[in-house]
Write a structure and sequence with these properties.
binds zinc ion, about 80 residues, two-stranded antiparallel sheet, alpha+beta
Length: about 80
C-alpha cells in the first residue's frame, strides 16, 4: 500500500515539474497569439489560440506567417500578420 502511494507521489511531482518547465513556453506562445492573422483569400482578421501555435511558432518567428484554417472562408492558407500591428 505504501509503495503505491510513493509511486503516486513521484508521478505527481514529475507532472508538476513538467508543467513548471512548460509554463514559460506557454507564456511566449500566448504573447505570439496576441496579434491577429490575416487570411490572404478573404482578408478576414482572426486570432488563434496559443496551443494552435505550438507547431507553427517557428514560421511565425521567422516569416511572420503561419498556415491556418480561416474561420471565415474555411480555406487553409499561409496567413500573415497585418502590417499595422
Ligand atoms: Zn478567409
Amino acid at each position: 500500500m505504501e509503495a503505491i502511494l510513493a509511486v503516486i507521489v513521484v508521478i505527481l511531482v514529475l507532472v508538476l515539474f513538467a508543467w513548471l518547465k512548460l509554463f514559460p513556453k506557454i507564456a511566449i506562445l500566448a504573447s505570439l497569439a496576441d496579434k491577429p492573422f490575416v487570411c490572404p483569400n478573404c482578408g478576414h482578421r482572426f486570432y488563434v489560440k496559443w496551443y494552435q501555435l505550438i507547431f507553427r511558432q517557428f514560421s511565425v518567428y521567422t516569416y511572420n506567417k503561419a498556415n491556418f484554417k480561416c474561420p471565415c472562408c474555411k480555406m487553409h492558407d499561409m496567413c500573415s500578420r497585418p502590417h499595422d500591428c
